Amino acid sequence: MSEPFEPRTDPDVDLGVPADRRELTARPATILATISAGGVLGALARAGLQHAVPHAPTGFPWATFTVNTSGCLLIGVLMAVLGHLGGGHPLARPFLGVGVLGGFTTFSTYAVDVQQAIVAGVPGTALAYLAATLLGALVAVGLGDAVTAGLLRRAAR
Amino acid sequence: MTVLLIALGAAVGAPLRYLTDRAVQSRHRSAFPWGTLLVNVVGSLLLGALAGWPASAAVSALLGTGFCGALTTYSTFSYETLRLTRGGHRLLALANVLGSVAAGLAAATAGYALAGALTG
Hints:
Chain A: It is a multi-pass membrane protein. Chain A is mainly α.
């Protein structure tokens, strides 16, 4: 079963996809609680890594860089798998995509880390971190999606 | 205690991103991911303010690591950029990347400066 997935742009919720339009009105408490639970798990995993690998304001934020690039790789993999399954379990995307990976990755810490590195007087580190995260994330999501979709297509033949 | 505060912040931040994204999408038909841009910019503004304000470790865990961390997302941002590119919206993808980074950085800077000005 390798039906082409709905052409969704937004993995959180895409109102162009009929199933997404219906899910909140059908069972709002279940959807929101599922997203909450996933978000808590993702955020705690991120906080744990940031706690284990702290960085000085003048240093490169390796923990957040790793969180964001690996989270982007995983959402590429997840969306390819869900696409292959024709959407998968109705709570899989809310839990894993919106919750876990949304809670795991962070844009605010990325932006503030860049800003704090500039304040700390290390614009070179700020620029390197800004560019490395951006390029790493985009390459990771593309690879995660393409490699997973390719493997699933091959397995289905 | 810190773990509980992070969990509490994330438990609110993650569904709030989903609800914001829904609300924003229901108000326009553009392929541009305005919802994600909005949460990322608002989260960066708030986290910037927390960085510039003498916030306690508890407030930092609840609002910074938990709430802002779960409200904002890099995974959705990158996936949307990928989908825009694949869908032939190359200019929108480029605008999303440059716009998100510029607006997020500007918001973080503004939040930091505002908090600094208010607390003297």
